[in-house]
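User: I'm preparing a small set of examples for a lab meeting where we compare how different chains pack in three dimensions. I only have the primary sequence for this one, and I'd like the structure in token form so I can line it up with the others. Please keep the answer compact; I'll paste it straight into my notes.
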Amino acid sequence: MGTTNPLLVHAIEPRRLDDVRASGADGHGNRLQPFAASGDGEPLRCCLRYAEPGDQIALISYAPFDHPSVWTEVGPIYIHAARCDGYTSADQLPRELANGPRVLRTYRADDTMNYDHNTVVTDEAALEPLIETLLGESDVHTVHVRTLAPQCFLYSVTAAN
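Assistant: Understood. Below is the structure token output for the 161-residue chain.
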């Protein structure tokens, strides 16, 4: 399916994770404690793929907004314990995290949540056409892709232009 405005996928900024790794804490009172991944469904927010068994990962608290906002929410995320190559295909959704079930939270350009367009995807539907439609709305600037049950942040998507 073609799109008028190409998508731009945003993993967590490497500089924010570099700060966590350098300080040994996530900024929310939790120490960085590496452990071996089980490989049983640990989505890594640094490189937007599932951890493989034995990968050294950490569970930290993270807030997608890095500025003051009433919409700032802190939640748990998995990252590689050491710096990785990050997500390098920003023009396409991450293959392993491109389908539902998911919650798609929409935000306006001023980072206020747009409840009118928040979408719950309960099946394994492809997210790209849904995100394209949401970003086609004049009052949607950013879509946060989140897990369904706990609604943990996975990544965000904006229009590329």
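A couple of notes for your slides: The helical segments are 14-23, 128-135. The radius of gyration is 15 Å.

User: Perfect, thanks.
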